[in-house]
Amino acid sequence: MKKNNEPFVSVLTPVYNGATYLRECIESVLAQEYSNWEYVLVNNCSTDNSLEIIKEYAELDSRIRIHDNGEFLQQMQNLNHAFRQISPDSIYCKVLHADDWLYPECITRMVEVAEMYPTVGIVSSYRLDDTRVGLNGLPYPSHFNDGREISRRYLLNNEYYFGAPSNLLLRSDLIRKRGRVYDESYPESDISACLDFLQESDFGFVHQVLTFTRRHEESHTHTLAKRNYHFMMGYLKMYLEYGPVFLSEREHKKQIALQTSIFHKLLARALYEGNGLQTYKKYASELDEVGLKIRNARLALYVIRELFVRLLATMGVEMINVKRRKKVGNHVQIAISDELGS
């Protein structure tokens, strides 16, 4: 489907209790300069008025299509389910989470880059990440980037240009050829999905702020960030799967050693914070599934170090409080002396 030579784009928003920001999200799609799109909103059994809001907008624009899940799905499972709802005619897919929004030029600029370079499977851009512009680092113009090189830069140097799913335009044929875009076993698999795409495609980038990612207390990303040791299992799986694809054997071993060390540090922090034996058993089992083991001696050292760091922090706070009390005491003493002197 083409309209005024515009390739057909499927915009996709999974929704679960997203009423607070949903109108802003939908209206940013309606405000696009680009016109040849469908907008598929997948309601995941919301208990707020999200579905009513979606229906209201669907009545206003025939390009909006509603898919109402018959049963609740977990986040990554629902995202994969949502990808299956895009039109068979779409050339590109633009994901947009229900608490994010797009600038009016977003789809136009991203499609321009994708059309310019047929081997590009993912297009990203600068984004406004809450109050800061992010995903900078690629030299201008660099609209086209070798997919293998972008993957290596991420795995070796943590150079990150993907952003959140809301920041990406994907080729629909790459989505269709996969039974699942995301690995449903862990919630950080959007990065792994990008690496998977870049095994067979290249990476486009628009040097312009085109998307907004919201950070708030209820967001899934914010919740996971508070429990960052839970991220590490996903990262280890990612390095185990894609390290051999993009890295040399020596580079891969070095990165696995580094990620394993970080995993032990974060697990030590989790144990210190009172998550105890249950957490240990859970991650020991998951590591075993991917052929790795918890090194108990290393873990014990990290637990001791965590205890020492917390103790020093407590002592530091106490010393500051002592200094403050002394300072206040001196002021009081000076004030009394002045009063007596007068």
TrEMBL record:
GO terms for molecular function: hexosyltransferase activity. Residues 10-177 form the Glycosyltransferase 2-like domain. Keywords: Transferase. InterPro entries: Glyco_trans_2-like (IPR001173), Nucleotide-diphossugar_trans (IPR029044). This is Glycosyltransferase family 2 protein. The lineage of its organism: Bacteria, Pseudomonadati, Balneolota, Balneolia, Balneolales.
